[in-house]
């Protein structure tokens, strides 16, 4: 960097270096040019003569000495992996470039001269193994971001890699001929805040024979899709069109896609499916409040509308499309894939008023639809109070965040107003419930508490969906909460070493009566890195326990899943009494395949 020079015209020779330093900002060393210097025989300065003051840059900061180091190991054998690629992406404004290292004969890697940061992410890959980030345990545990203090050394990081599995197959065009150049993706379902999204794990292009092979996959559950790149970035006079991919086994509706489960060390069967190209549709309509005296409808203060699959036998959380809405209640769903749907709408006409609802069913097959006009109706008003059953005699003081909800029988959480907050007097009120069958559930429970019972007119309706109608007032639903919770804990044990966190632990009732969405009698958890799991709050009863790769959160409302799971070898029965703690270790079930007896 060039030195900064300042020109001062002195009225006299009386000027100190300290004053010059202050004039230059005081942050760097200064030298007066033209003043007497060592070895200068004259050093004369004439009054009024300009002199130059050179500001010398401060010394550069010391080189950071932070270190991230560790080993990459094969999970199954606990042996080092040689020449694995370990990548350290550059955190924003911390490192100018990514770093990469190759592991040595002992599987070791080392990154040095790292600055302090709290967002370092380490990923490792090696041919024949599934790539993995440090701390990651699909499908439930995301990668761990490593924090590094100034000049800190962390040298005990271990990244275990598991042998890859792969999927191979062929994609056909609609006329049955091989389709070259299709983009094929393997996707894993990820759940965030009760919303299901699909994350691409691997992709490949089909060759001239329509063949593809997806590699580098960890064992687990996957959906396959194929897409014709020619239909990317296209549209018509009304705007862009997003064509949907085709899901295996050849369907365009995600809810009908078949999931593929890949087990470690087991070759997957070849898959083949046809590509379907169907234009996405636009669905337009309006939401209005009911007419009052004189035939005039009130103005909507707020409104919402969603489009979801019509099928109720599977609790689907796929996000389909977001609508655009106008203040007058008109809405438009763009890019709707073929399928059978229900459109649910709700709105309010006054502050703190009763929420109003309506539902509309339709079938979409590539043609635009309009005229989906819905007149809302006031929902049912439901209320009473919460009771606390406590073994310790202590009741939680705060009620913040404790809310009574009424999800619909098919699992939808759109059909009730979010107004059932429990007050300091333990009273609650839901100001609007859509017509249909609903369960009662409690969100935001304090630690150690669970929903024990829902009483209405002297009967226990906890496990039963209650029918509500529009314009109905239904008080008298007593919610009983208890800290006398049941606990089931234990370990998932594998035959040999393996990725135990790739299994889900599922507890479900023997009786199929409770194989429903939002059932209190069904729980799914994932074990930690040591295989430990814990389930709290199951109601007393008879249950089955399974550790499996075949079930995820989307299956918890599907009776067919539990009907099949209950017949698999390795499912463990157990009983629970109120307030009981139970230790139960489980091994992965042996899946019954097609043709097994």
Gross morphology is globular
Share of helix, binned:
under 10%
Strand segment count = 48
Class from secondary-structure proportions: mainly beta
Mean pLDDT: 86
Measure the end-to-end span: 80 Å
Our count of helices gives 2
* Spans of at least 5 consecutive residues with low confidence: 1-35, 313-319
Q: Describe it for me?
A:
The chain has 597 residues and is an all-beta fold. The strands form 14 sheets. Strands 32, 34, 37, 38, 40 and 41 form a 6-stranded mixed beta sheet that branches. Strands 15, 16, 18, 21 and 22 form a 5-stranded antiparallel beta sheet that branches. Strands 4, 5, 8 and 13 form a 4-stranded mixed beta sheet that branches. The longest helix is centred in the N-terminal third of the chain and has 7 residues, at 17-23. The protein is globular. Residues 1-35 and 313-319 have low confidence and may be disordered.
Kindly summarize this structure in a few lines.
With about 600 residues, the chain is an all-beta fold. The protein is built from two helices and 48 strands. Strands 32, 34, 37, 38, 40 and 41 form a six-stranded mixed β-sheet that branches. Strands 15, 16, 18, 21 and 22 form a five-stranded antiparallel β-sheet that branches.
